[in-house]
Amino acid sequence: MQSPLQRNLDNRNHHGTQTMITTFSLQEAQSDDPRERILLPPTDPNAEVMEIPGYNLVYVNGACPRNYRVYKAHSMIGVIFQHITHWSNGVDSLQYAEPVDAAVGLDDYMTMARGSKATTERPLTEEELLDKEFDSLTNDEWERLKRYVPKTKDLVAA
After folding, report:
1. Largest pairwise CA distance in the chain
2. Considering the entire predicted model, what is its pTM?
């Protein structure tokens, strides 16, 4: 009897191909804690990894859609989904024919989101920094606080 994964790989309508995916045996899958399998990095020999140009996709769970974590270099950038007829990335409403297109769309979105956040986010004032927990301050924020001299306004002696 074939495993569900093997049936999907042999199905011409399914987008996975046996040469692209490294699988682990059904026996290993049954013996492992499922929560641990979800967190496997792409370098783990038991991870089901699909390598596409510029990205590694690590199978997490699901049948339809199948959920994959997307890694670029050694950093996870998000999740994409393999449906029967298309791929999607959850950050736009597009349907992609290939996993690489869904991964590139996700990567572009995340790059744009980081850029727009960086340009619209203003640095905290020194007064706002004083309200933060000291353990969460960066070195730059500590340096700003060291140089900060509070302005006195309308102080009344008691």
Report:
1. 87
2. 0.51
- Which of 102, 98, 109 lies closest to 88 in space, CA to CA? 102
- Provide the pLDDT confidence category of residue 5 given band limits of 50, 70 and 90: very low
For residue 115, what is the enclosing H or E element? helix 99-120
Token pair of 100 as six digits: 């690489």
Contact 88, 65 (CB under 8 A): yes
Residues 6+ apart with CB under 8 A from 100: 52, 53, 54, 55
The torsion region of residue 73 among left (phi > 0), alpha (psi -120 to 50) and beta comes to left
Measured CA to CA, the distance from residue 74 to residue 153 in angstroms comes to 51
Alpha helices in 32-96 (DSSP H): 34-38
Query: Is 48 in contact with 24 (CB distance < 8 Å)?
Result: yes
How does pLDDT run across 116-132, given as a tens digit for each residue?
655 556 778 888 888 87
Residue 107: its pLDDT value, please? Answer: 92
